Amino acid sequence: MKKQKPKTKQEVMKLVKENKVRYIRLCFTDVLGFLKGFTITVDELPRALGDGMGFDGSSIEGFARIEESDMIARPDLSTFAVLPWESKEYPVARMFCDIYMPNGKPFAGDPRYVLKKNLEYAAKLGFTYYVGPELEYFYFNNPKNAIVLDRGGYFDLTPLDIAQDVRNETVTALENLGIIVEYSHHEVASSQHEIDLRYSDALSMADNVMTYRLVAKEIAQARGLHASFMPKPVFGINGSGMHVHQSLFKGTANAFFEKKGEYHLSKIAKQYIAGLLKHAPDICSVTNQWVNSYKRLVPGYEAPVYICWAQMNRSALIRVPMYKPGKEKSTRIEYRVPDPACNPYLAFSVMLAAGLEGIEKGYALAEPANDNIYHMTDEERQRAKINSLPEDLLEAIKITEQSSLVKKAFGEELFYYFIRNKKMEWDEYKAQVTQYEIDKYLPIL
Fold this sequence. Notes:
By secondary structure, the protein is an alpha+beta fold. It has helices at residues 9-18, 45-50, 111-124, 164-176, 202-222, 267-287, 293-296, 344-360, 378-383, 393-401, 404-410, 412-430, 435-441, and strands at 23-29, 35-41, 53-56, 70-75, 81-82, 92-100, 128-140, 181-186, 192-197, 200-201, 226-228, 242-250, 253-254, 306-307, 309-310, 318-319, 333-335, 387-388.
C-alpha cells in the first residue's frame, strides 16, 4: 500500500522523530536533469521548513551567474521519505525542493518549477496530467565498460536473468519510499531490465523518476554493479527507452475516453495525439537530450524513427493501447521516443505543451499507420506523409531553437541555458576522434 504523504510541518517532524532521522538531504535538479542537493542536520530542519535553506547556485548548470548566485531551497513536504539504503545508525531522509530567488519569487530556471507552471496551465483548461513511464536500464560490472552480465531476453527468468534479485531489491527500496511499482522484468537486450511505475500525476512522477534512477544505481553499487540509463550503451543490441503512457483527466473522468469514439478515443485525445505528432521534432532534443540518444533512434531496434501513430503497431511513434471494457480510466496513449536519461520535469512539460496545443488549436489527426513502417520504402512513407525524427542531436537542437512551443513551455531563461548547453555538448562531441574512425581509417589512410 502506498504510504501516506505528509502534508504539514508537524507531520514531517513526527516522521523524523519516529524514524530517528539524523540527516536530511535536500534535492533538486539542474537543467540537464542531474540530481543535485545538500545535506542538513535534523536540528536545521525547522528552519528549512520555514524560510528554506540558502545555497550558492553559481556552479549549478543553468542556475545562475556568479554575481547573482544566491538561491533558496524550500522543501516540498509531501516528498519526505527515509532512504532505506543509508546508515541504520544515522538514518537519512530526503525531500525534493522548489528553488526560489532571495526576493521570494520562484526561480525560472528550476525544472521542477517549469513543470509546475505547465501543469497549472493545464489546470486552467480543466485538465490534470497523468503519466506512467517505463524506464529501461542496463547492469554492467562497472561504469568503465559495457560488458553485459547475462544473455537473457524479454521476460526471461533465472538462471538467464541473473540480476533478478538485484532488481527485486530495487523494487523493495522503491516501495519503502512510497513509490508503487507495477511490473519488473528482464528486457529484450542482454543485461537490460525494466521497472514500471504506477500511473501518477506528472509532478509526483517526475520526482519518482529521479528517485528511481538514484535507487537503481545505489542498490547496484552496493552489489558491486553499475546501473546505467545511457540510451545506447552497447552496439548491435536494443537501447533503453522510457515509453511514457499519458492521459488527461477532468476531475475523475478520463478525458481521452469516449465510448462510441473510434478506437474509444475522444476528440480531445485525438487532438492531443495530433499535437504531439506535429511537435515531435521540436521536443526531441528534450525527450532525447544526449548525443548518444540518437544512436538508439535507428531502424531495427524497436525504437521509433518515424512520426506516426497506430494501435497495435509498435514501430509507430505513438501507440494507443487496446481498450478493455470496464477500464475507461486506463484509456491512454504511449509516447515511445523518450529515453530514460532525459530530464523528466522538462520532458513531461514539453509533451504536455505539445498535446495541449493540439487541443487548443483543434489539430486534425491523420490516419493510423497499420503497416510496419520500417519495411516501407521512402516513396511509400512520403505518400503516407510520414516524416522522420531528427537524425542527431545537432538537427534536433536546430529545430528546438526555432520552436516557439518549447520556448513558451520552458520560459526564456531555461530555454537559453538548455540550448546553450546542448550546443556545447555537440561541439565537444564533433571534435572527438572515435574508436570507429581509428579502426576504419588508421590502417588505410
